[in-house]
């Protein structure tokens, strides 16, 4: 694309646009008739053209300035028009003030004449906000492809860019919405000043107070001073009226009701009519005086005073207060009364709602049962009730306060009431003859400020009254104003403020609903208006409620029914016509009548939504994942991982990941983690020259201030360590949560303050394993087959790190409080990644420029020390691991060219940047601790709903072997230290008992989420819960088989505080996104696997799946054991058992040798032990640390085997060796078919062994060797294993020793290998080591052992003195275990579990 931009027409705005392009390095050419601006343009480096056609030549984009539709034909389509010279695929930017319909007609003409043209409407205006004061904004609209093509030029031309994709003409629509607001706000401002002046309040006092309060607007702040100075000409009303007429006509055509706009325009018309034939009515002030009948200018010229200075006087001369009565402990009243308690006042409170009184007593206050009782012995009585009726009732009703109040007391009326009511009340109190004093002190500021003593109070009354209440007023306020004029003056100021606030909420509703009816994106519309002349304090505060469709009542709609009722009543009594205020009051009344009175006052927008059938809500849609992913371009064709490895070899930088919780290691393996960051430890890492290492900061659990200091400390140590090892080079990654929670921008700025400014901050929260995608700058969280915008998820409601924006550009602006505007945030699109590849990424990153920001603004808004030049902020879109790898390769290229970056990313970015190749999931067999017999320890602290569902699923699936211990959050975070300690002691005792018993032990915080009133309080609660979990884990004495910690803070604190780990090695992942660490030798449990399970990863069954895969046995199938033996070239021992000691001996020996084994039950043993014996075997196998199966041996009758098949065994032996071959064949086949249906393995015998086993004797003459020819047919029965007779015997071999036919075994092995049948050898007792090895080499995979184990048992019984059954059990178990362990080693299965 060419770097030439053309301009047709240079007015004041377009000249600024052209100047910005020149400063950004573009070549700019222009055609303009006026010489003055052209000369300045040429001085800046621009090129003059002779015609519009010349402008289009060689230009990639042309800006055409149109002020009237009549210009279109000549300027664009004429003989020398732009279209004559316009290049193919050029961008045509229409900077105009013509109507939407005319723009759309023009676009149609342009695209009909030339298909390959990109037309964009670019409406230019100046920012009016404090941040953008006077800087240019552009509202661009057009087709998606046109906006994308025009974006580089638009971005370079202005400070803020707002794009509306779709129909052209959005700028004209936004202009109408803004003009609607400006017109309403102007009329409301004049009404407010007039009413206040008529009420006796100095207009300049009103201006000073309200311009810093909720009633402020851009119009009020900037126009009222001119009005009061008589410095606004009246003729501008005519222009404003004409503009509003255009808006009103548009509304009629839709149709859409605009009652506030309509009445505002009528007021303007009334004012205009006053100018006709009257030379004196030439200014806005004089016109307003004639229309409203109030002497504004005379009032403005009265002697001025400073209300703040009067407030200081009364507080410095204030009288002491011993006791305060407080009536009305509602939302604000309770906070005020509680703050007075914290300020060491004695406060007695009363409220009609009894639970509130109990709560007040718990806070340290005294509770009264009536208004009369509350006034006993008070110096000051504060009344904070809803309205005049309630104030009247608590003072003069049944058991009212006035009757009982002591003489000389002062009443402070803090409620919002009319000035007339206050004046009347003062007279009534004077007539009581008790020297009662009244202070009129309405408050403003909301519930939170009330509780913190930071209210704005407008107080009026006699000097004596004010001094009597001075200390109370001072304690409750951040801003205290004393208003002259006697009681009622304070309420007059509050009344005027509420007039403006109410009108501004209603006008915001009308404007946003009108914008929605025009088809505008309401969230973007809000962003534009917030920086324009139509903004107000209430617009910026209440419209987000409308956009989020969240009407949680911070201030109920009915409050403005009351407050605007006061306004209209006072206007009527004082003969001031309040047209706009009255209509606004009617809108709130309509909302209340519809049943919305108790929702938030922003709910007045529902009146418009209901009438017009539209929705103002600006939520991003939930999308179908597959549909969205399929709509994206094909991925970059080649995998850049090999290139990343090559580039990293040439890039000496080490990647240092500062991980705000341990879950960031979820995509890497064979990488070290430091949990402390001394210079020595970091230097040691740098000397190893690793591609990457992690430093676990756990900063997400800290306050913003502490997190910043921590990052500065670590970065300082990094700098020192780097110098110590010869200036090791490194790149910093701030690994944060993929759902956008954490300390941004505080941590990034802290790092930069130590390391120095970077060329760019990279924001990349993509994380495939967690289902996090960033597409078209919007960050999504996958929920099954849907993609939910992150701002709409549970994560965005986090008590400490909540946010609203899903669009990452807007998220950056939100998190930086507007210091980094959304339009200044750069974006690497998926299109660039997939079509341009790493080289395009590199080029883009190298082109990023530093941005100028105000140091003062940033410090004020963020309390963070940004520098004058801030590196660019760049977000990265990604929808696949390939996208991530492409970006990583491009970023490394840019680093090799000298660019520096600070990255705030999720885990996927880290693995991509170092070229990690995924490996299979980590299992217990990868750790030596697999031999441990204790249970696993599972610690859960995360509160996200996903974790709660996962815990419920874990408990459901593993209820047999899982034991749960719930720690009460209330007890450990909110109760006394004694209660906390007892709760911890209880958990420790239970956990030790469960772990020793081999049970998987779940320790979790109670699932009810308890949050504080502020984010810092919530963090404090989280910290206390985490520390309690740490204390529990640190006091558990049993070494767990493995430890799993769920949740970021929990896993960090468990590793560093409970387990004292200073370093760890990331082995891999137990499940996608779930890292497994090997703790360092300095930890409490060195070598124990530590599974870090993030709170936001996996579906509802993920936790249960990990616990299952890490259970003591992967499976207990006999067939699986023999398959593994076949692969490993060893055999598995099958040991006959008769009692608990025998069972425990087999399991203990197998676990000690880390070997599989088989528990065998002979019919003779089953006859004696029955089902309990089998149940013991099955239970022991299930709980064993190694694979153990249970086998039924020598089933000689169908009755025996049918019963055995129902007992839950893993395998059975069909013994038809006493039958003829034909009968054996039939018998075996029938049982095999039944066993197969139950997934039970079958072993059968062909031939017959001599000897005695369990009372069954086969004489030598009855013995038969296995016939090879018969074996071939026998194997067709479907058996899994064949017990062969090759000279082996049951019981003891003759003195001459065994005489095994190994040649026969070899033949049988050749046959069985083809059939997939395992060979089994009974009678392994007494076989030599050499014979055992030869049998294994010839295919024997299972050896039956009985005689030697039984002999050991009997000898142990008879040897030595045993005085107790326990001694017998111990001795016999030890004797059998020794024999079994010896056989396991002999069979080669040791270490093969």
From TrEMBL:
<dbReference type="InterPro" id="IPR013328">
    <property type="entry name" value="6PGD_dom2"/>
</dbReference>
<feature type="domain" description="6-phosphogluconate dehydrogenase NADP-binding">
    <location>
        <begin position="5"/>
        <end position="162"/>
    </location>
</feature>
<dbReference type="Pfam" id="PF01116">
    <property type="entry name" value="F_bP_aldolase"/>
</dbReference>
<keyword id="KW-0808">Transferase</keyword>
<dbReference type="GO" id="GO:0051287">
    <property type="term" value="F:NAD binding"/>
</dbReference>
<dbReference type="InterPro" id="IPR037051">
    <property type="entry name" value="4-carb_acid_sugar_kinase_N_sf"/>
</dbReference>
<feature type="domain" description="Four-carbon acid sugar kinase N-terminal">
    <location>
        <begin position="655"/>
        <end position="913"/>
    </location>
</feature>
<feature type="domain" description="3-hydroxyisobutyrate dehydrogenase-like NAD-binding">
    <location>
        <begin position="169"/>
        <end position="286"/>
    </location>
</feature>
<dbReference type="Pfam" id="PF17042">
    <property type="entry name" value="NBD_C"/>
</dbReference>
<dbReference type="InterPro" id="IPR010737">
    <property type="entry name" value="4-carb_acid_sugar_kinase_N"/>
</dbReference>
<dbReference type="InterPro" id="IPR002204">
    <property type="entry name" value="3-OH-isobutyrate_DH-rel_CS"/>
</dbReference>
<feature type="domain" description="3-hydroxyisobutyrate dehydrogenase-like NAD-binding">
    <location>
        <begin position="488"/>
        <end position="608"/>
    </location>
</feature>
<dbReference type="GO" id="GO:0016301">
    <property type="term" value="F:kinase activity"/>
</dbReference>
<comment type="similarity">
    <text>Belongs to the four-carbon acid sugar kinase family.</text>
</comment>
<dbReference type="InterPro" id="IPR029154">
    <property type="entry name" value="HIBADH-like_NADP-bd"/>
</dbReference>
<dbReference type="Pfam" id="PF14833">
    <property type="entry name" value="NAD_binding_11"/>
</dbReference>
<dbReference type="GO" id="GO:0005975">
    <property type="term" value="P:carbohydrate metabolic process"/>
</dbReference>
<dbReference type="InterPro" id="IPR013785">
    <property type="entry name" value="Aldolase_TIM"/>
</dbReference>
<dbReference type="InterPro" id="IPR031475">
    <property type="entry name" value="NBD_C"/>
</dbReference>
<dbReference type="InterPro" id="IPR042213">
    <property type="entry name" value="NBD_C_sf"/>
</dbReference>
<dbReference type="InterPro" id="IPR006115">
    <property type="entry name" value="6PGDH_NADP-bd"/>
</dbReference>
<dbReference type="GO" id="GO:0005634">
    <property type="term" value="C:nucleus"/>
</dbReference>
<dbReference type="InterPro" id="IPR008927">
    <property type="entry name" value="6-PGluconate_DH-like_C_sf"/>
</dbReference>
<dbReference type="GO" id="GO:0016616">
    <property type="term" value="F:oxidoreductase activity, acting on the CH-OH group of donors, NAD or NADP as acceptor"/>
</dbReference>
<dbReference type="Pfam" id="PF07005">
    <property type="entry name" value="SBD_N"/>
</dbReference>
<keyword id="KW-0067">ATP-binding</keyword>
<dbReference type="InterPro" id="IPR036291">
    <property type="entry name" value="NAD(P)-bd_dom_sf"/>
</dbReference>
<dbReference type="GO" id="GO:0005524">
    <property type="term" value="F:ATP binding"/>
</dbReference>
<dbReference type="GO" id="GO:0050661">
    <property type="term" value="F:NADP binding"/>
</dbReference>
<feature type="domain" description="6-phosphogluconate dehydrogenase NADP-binding">
    <location>
        <begin position="323"/>
        <end position="482"/>
    </location>
</feature>
<feature type="domain" description="Four-carbon acid sugar kinase nucleotide binding">
    <location>
        <begin position="937"/>
        <end position="1103"/>
    </location>
</feature>
<dbReference type="GO" id="GO:0008270">
    <property type="term" value="F:zinc ion binding"/>
</dbReference>
<dbReference type="InterPro" id="IPR000771">
    <property type="entry name" value="FBA_II"/>
</dbReference>
<keyword id="KW-0547">Nucleotide-binding</keyword>
<protein>
    <submittedName>
        <fullName>Ketose-bisphosphate aldolase class-II family protein</fullName>
    </submittedName>
</protein>
<keyword id="KW-0119">Carbohydrate metabolism</keyword>
<keyword id="KW-0418">Kinase</keyword>
<dbReference type="GO" id="GO:0016832">
    <property type="term" value="F:aldehyde-lyase activity"/>
</dbReference>
<dbReference type="Pfam" id="PF03446">
    <property type="entry name" value="NAD_binding_2"/>
</dbReference>
């Amino acid at each position: 694309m060419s770097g030439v931009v053309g301009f047709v027409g240079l007015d004041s705005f377009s000249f600024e646009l052209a100047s910005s392009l020149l400063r950004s390095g573009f070549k700019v050419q222009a055609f303009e008739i006026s010489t003055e601006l052209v000369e300045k343009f040429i001085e800046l480096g621009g090129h003059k053209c002779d015609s519009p056609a010349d402008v289009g030549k060689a230009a990639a984009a042309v800006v055409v300035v149109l002020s009237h539709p009549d210009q279109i034909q000549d300027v664009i389509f004429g003989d020398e028009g732009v279209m004559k010279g316009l290049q193919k695929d050029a961008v045509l930017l229409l900077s105009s003030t013509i109507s939407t319909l005319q723009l759309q007609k023009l676009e149609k003409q342009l695209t009909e004449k030339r298909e390959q043209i990109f037309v964009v409407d670019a409406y230019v205006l100046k920012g009016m906000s404090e941040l953008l004061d006077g800087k240019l904004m552009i509202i661009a609209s057009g087709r998606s492809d046109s906006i994308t093509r025009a974006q580089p030029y638009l971005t370079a031309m202005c400070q803020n860019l707002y794009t509306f994709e779709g129909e052209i003409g959005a700028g004209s629509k936004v202009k109408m919405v803004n003009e609607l607001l400006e017109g309403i706000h102007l009329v409301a401002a004049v009404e407010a000043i007039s009413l206040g002046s008529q009420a006796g309040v100095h207009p300049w006092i009103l201006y000073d107070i309200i311009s810093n309060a909720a009633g402020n607007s851009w119009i009020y702040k900037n126009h009222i001073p001119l009005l009061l100075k008589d410095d606004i000409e009246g003729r501008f009303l005519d222009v404003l009226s004409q503009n509003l007429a255009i808006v009103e006509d548009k509304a009629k055509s839709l149709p859409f009701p605009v009652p506030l706009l309509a009445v505002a325009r009528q007021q303007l018309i009334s004012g205009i009519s006053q100018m006709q034939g009257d030379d004196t009515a030439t200014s806005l002030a004089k016109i307003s005086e004639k229309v409203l009948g109030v002497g504004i200018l005379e009032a403005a010229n009265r002697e001025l005073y400073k209300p703040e200075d009067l407030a200081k006087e009364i507080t410095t001369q204030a009288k002491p207060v011993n006791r305060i009565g407080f009536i009305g402990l509602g939302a604000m009243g309770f906070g005020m009364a509680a703050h007075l308690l914290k300020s060491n006042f004695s406060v007695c409170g009363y409220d009609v709602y009894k639970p509130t009184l109990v709560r007040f007593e718990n806070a340290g206050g005294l509770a009264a049962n009536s208004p009369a009782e509350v006034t006993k012995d008070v110096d000051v009585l504060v009344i904070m009730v809803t309205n005049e009726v309630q104030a009247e009732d608590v003072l003069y009703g049944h058991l009212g306060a006035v009757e009982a109040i002591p003489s000389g007391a002062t009443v402070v009326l803090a409620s919002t009431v009319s000035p007339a009511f206050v004046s009347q009340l003062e007279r009534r109190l004077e007539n009581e003859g008790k020297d009662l004093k009244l202070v009129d002190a309405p408050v403003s500021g909301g519930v939170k400020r009330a509780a913190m003593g930071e209210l704005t109070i407008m107080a009026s009354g006699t000097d004596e009254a004010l001094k009597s209440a001075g200390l109370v007023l001072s304690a409750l306020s951040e801003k205290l104003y004393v208003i002259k004029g006697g009681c009622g003056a304070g309420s007059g100021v509050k009344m005027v403020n509420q007039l403006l606030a109410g009108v501004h909420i209603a006008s915001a509703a009308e404007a946003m609903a009108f914008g929605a009816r025009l088809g505008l994106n309401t969230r973007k519309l809000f962003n534009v208006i917030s920086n324009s002349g139509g903004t107000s304090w209430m617009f910026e505060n209440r419209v987000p409620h409308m956009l989020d469709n969240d009407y949680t009542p911070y201030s109920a709609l009915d409050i403005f029914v009351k407050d605007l009722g006061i306004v209209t009543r006072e206007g009527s009594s004082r003969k001031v016509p309040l047209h706009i205020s009255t209509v606004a009051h009617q809108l709130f009344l309509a909302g209340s009548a519809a049943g919305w009175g108790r929702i938030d006052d922003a709910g007045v927008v529902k009146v418009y939504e209901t009438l017009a059938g539209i929705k103002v809500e600006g939520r991003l849609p939930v999308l179908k994942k597959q549909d969205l992913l399929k709509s994206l371009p094909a991925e970059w064709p080649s995998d850049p991982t090999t290139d990343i490895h090559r580039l990293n070899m040439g890039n000496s930088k080490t990647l240092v990941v500062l991980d705000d919780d341990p879950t960031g290691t979820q995509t890497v393996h064979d990488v070290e983690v430091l949990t402390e960051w001394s210079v020595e430890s970091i230097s040691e890492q740098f000397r190893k020259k690793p591609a990457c290492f992690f430093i676990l900061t756990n900063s997400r659990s800290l306050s913003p201030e502490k997190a910043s200091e921590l990052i500065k400390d670590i970065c300082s140590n990094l700098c020192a360590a780097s110098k110590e090892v010869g200036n090791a080079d490194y790149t910093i990654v701030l690994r944060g949560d993929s759902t956008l929670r954490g300390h941004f921008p505080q941590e990034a700025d802290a790092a930069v303050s130590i390391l120095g400014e970077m060329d760019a901050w990279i924001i990349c929260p993509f994380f495939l394993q967690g289902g996090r995608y960033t597409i078209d700058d919007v960050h999504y969280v996958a929920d099954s087959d849907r993609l939910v915008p992150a701002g709409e998820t549970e994560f965005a409601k986090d008590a400490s790190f909540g946010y609203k924006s899903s669009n990452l550009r807007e998220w950056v602006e939100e998190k930086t409080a507007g210091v980094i505007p959304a339009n200044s945030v750069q974006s690497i699109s998926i299109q660039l990644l997939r079509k341009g590849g790493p080289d395009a990424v590199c080029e883009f990153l190298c082109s990023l420029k530093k941005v100028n920001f105000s140091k003062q603004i940033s410090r004020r808004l963020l309390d963070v020390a940004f520098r004058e030049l801030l590196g660019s902020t760049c977000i990265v879109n990604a929808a696949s691991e390939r996208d991530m790898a492409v970006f990583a390769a491009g970023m490394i290229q840019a680093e090799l060219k000298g660019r520096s970056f600070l990255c705030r990313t999720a885990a996927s970015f880290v693995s991509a940047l170092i070229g990690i190749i995924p490996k299979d999931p980590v299992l217990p067999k990868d750790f030596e601790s697999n031999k441990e017999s204790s249970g696993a320890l599972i610690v859960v602290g995360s509160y996200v709903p996903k974790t709660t569902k996962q815990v419920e699923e874990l408990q459901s699936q593993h209820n047999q072997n899982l034991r749960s211990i719930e720690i009460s959050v209330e007890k450990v975070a909110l109760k006394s230290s004694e209660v906390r300690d007892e709760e911890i002691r209880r958990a420790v005792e239970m956990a030790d008992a469960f772990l020793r018993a081999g049970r998987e032990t779940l320790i979790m915080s109670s699932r009810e989420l308890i949050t504080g009133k502020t984010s810092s309080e919530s963090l404090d609660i989280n910290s206390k819960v985490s520390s309690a979990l740490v204390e529990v884990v640190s006091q558990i004495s049993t070494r767990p088989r493995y430890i799993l910690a769920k949740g970021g803070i929990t896993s960090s604190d468990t590793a560093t505080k409970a387990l004292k780990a200073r370093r760890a090695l990331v082995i891999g992942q137990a499940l996608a996104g779930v890292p497994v660490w090997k703790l360092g030798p300095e930890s409490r449990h060195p070598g124990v696997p530590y599974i870090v399970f993030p709170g936001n990863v996996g579906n509802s069954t993920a936790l249960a799946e990990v616990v299952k895969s890490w259970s003591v046995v992967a499976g207990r199938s006999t067939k699986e054991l023999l398959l593994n033996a076949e692969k490993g070239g060893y055999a598995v021992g099958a040991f006959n058992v008769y009692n608990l000691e025998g069972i425990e001996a087999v399991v203990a020996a197998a676990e000690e040798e880390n070997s599989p084994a088989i528990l065998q039950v002979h019919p003779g043993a089953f006859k004696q032990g029955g089902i309990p014996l089998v149940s013991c075997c099955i239970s022991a196998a299930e709980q064993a640390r190694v694979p153990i199966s249970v086998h039924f041996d020598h089933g000689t009758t169908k009755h025996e085997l049918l019963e055995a098949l129902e007992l839950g065994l893993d395998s059975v032996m069909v013994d038809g060796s006493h039958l003829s071959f034909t009968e054996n064949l039939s018998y075996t086949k029938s049982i095999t078919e039944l066993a197969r249906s139950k997934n039970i393995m079958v072993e059968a015998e062909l031939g017959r062994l001599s000897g005695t086993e369990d009372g069954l004797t086969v004489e030598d003459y009855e013995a038969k060797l296995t016939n090879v020819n018969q074996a071939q047919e026998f194997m067709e029965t479907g058996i899994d294993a064949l017990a062969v007779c090759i000279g082996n015997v049951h019981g003891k071999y003759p003195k001459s020793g065994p005489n095994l036919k190994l040649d026969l075994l070899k033949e049988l092995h050749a046959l069985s290998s083809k059939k997939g049948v395992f060979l089994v050898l009974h009678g392994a007792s007494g076989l030599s080591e050499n014979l055992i090895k030869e049998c294994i080499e010839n295919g024997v995979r299972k050896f039956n052992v009985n005689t030697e184990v039984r002999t050991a048992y009997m000898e142990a019984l008879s040897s030595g003195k045993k005085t107790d059954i326990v001694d017998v059990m111990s001795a016999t178990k030890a004797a059998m275990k020794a024999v079994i362990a010896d056989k396991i080693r002999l069979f080669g299965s040791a270490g093969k579990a």
